[in-house]
Amino acid sequence: MTGKNQFAGPASTGRSLIACTFAIVGGDEGFSIDVIGRRGTYVNPFVLLLDAVDALAVIGLKDSKGRTPRTNFQLAKYPTVAIVVQPTGSAADVMNWSATLCIYYGVEQVLKRQAYQEVTIYCAWNHQERIQVSIRTVSSEIHTDTTASGLNTTQPTSAVFDTFHPRFFYVRNPTALDYTVTMITIMYSIMYLSRLSKTSVIPRTYTDAGPDWDACIIFIGDGPSPSSDHPPYLECRWVIETLGMIPSFMIQQRRFAELGMTFWVDNRYLGGGLLQKGKPDEAIASDKTLATANV
Sign of the C-alpha dihedral, residues 233, 265, 166, 291? Predict the structure, then answer.
């Protein structure tokens, strides 16, 4: 799937400055989105991005073909924004893959247009509406039907290996990153990976959210080889969990900049990753990538 959008022109609702309709071009033919805002409201973009990363990390760890009932995502530490995922019509739940697409592309439009207001995102397959995602400003109260997370601090779990943990570090002389670019790149990476089997082995690969966001993430998995001929290997679920933890680490460090990461299970090194400014062809050739791969 690509990160490119083909716009069909603004929706004729007249209800908002952000009203737009577009279809995703690539591997999801027939998937379309309507983003409709609400004038006179304000949503903090930083909190929105934190909430969106958290929501994507939670849903992204589930089976992409599985189903999720109506769920509110509201961070305990930053409770002023809620993302509500719900079915439309008589449906009781939504497909997880649809939810990740709807959250990512809807939030991306809010950021691209700098329209920091409450919005409702309607997503449909083949013109049949399936899912609704609402972004709302709320009081500091955590509601009873809400998934109240910390701040992207999903605790790693595994049915077989019980000591998975990532390690984060800033690369030498890191380039500063805009927090919006950082968050969108993380969100795209989670969305991209969420479609895979959660036990899929991740080889050397990269994710890139498109030309509007000047950053990428490179993963270099230590897969089967003569020196590593038995599991564990770097699996998709562990990468998603790690991506969900990056915002918390950067906030604690008070620094958004190029970041390296390594993946460990039962004290065994599984591979490395790098969140880096620039596009993949530039990043892959850099000394920073090579250094990260050898940590």
Answer: negative
